[in-house]
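TL;DR need structure tokens for one chain.
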Amino acid sequence: MMGAVLGLLLCGPLAWAEKGPMLNGGRHLGVSLESELSSRDMKQDGQKDRERVARQSVQLSYGLIDHLDLYAKIGLGKIVFEEADLASRTRPLTGIGLRSTFPFSGGYFAGFSAQYQFGKVSKFEQNNTSVAIEDKWTETNTDLFVGTMDLVRDPEPDLRFYAGVRLSSRKDRLTSKAGSSSTAKEDAGVGGMLGMDFSDRNVFRLNAELGTGDRNNIRVRLGLLF
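>> reply
TL;DR here they are.
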């Protein structure tokens, strides 16, 4: 599958009639601020819990070619397990990923993105008391989406909408001070999303996305292009 994707990126005569939407473009650098609130069902030792995550990050992306961006991000996040009444302190997170779109005649497009994030939390609060529990977590996301033509044709800025499906996985490895450990895993791994992308390709981009299924989330990203 990866070979087919790379073949499209390099050779697809229809897809490359214009630069892909929602990307920096070849050899361009982008910096964005991202904020996300999400919640998802987790399973831990046969028990269910609801995990809520709030995070803010700075993302640096680079257009490797016109239709493919690579990016890395650093930020801060907070985790809450509702049933266990555990709330973490705000701690760093790191992520890497890629995003690509395939424009078609008439202004429509399809695309995909993949992301891997990870972090570690060493302190939680429970009933206003500090609890020494370490949480090493990892999270993966893969999105497949299709979008509308540019709704503001000329002049720029561009306004586009898209919808798609996503596959996700999250794992929290919890270790107590006494040394006992358990693993919480995401209960559902398939969901959907609806998004909006508004940009002047030479200056800025505003992206907003709502998701449900694998997790309920809202994400807003404001970026600048260089």
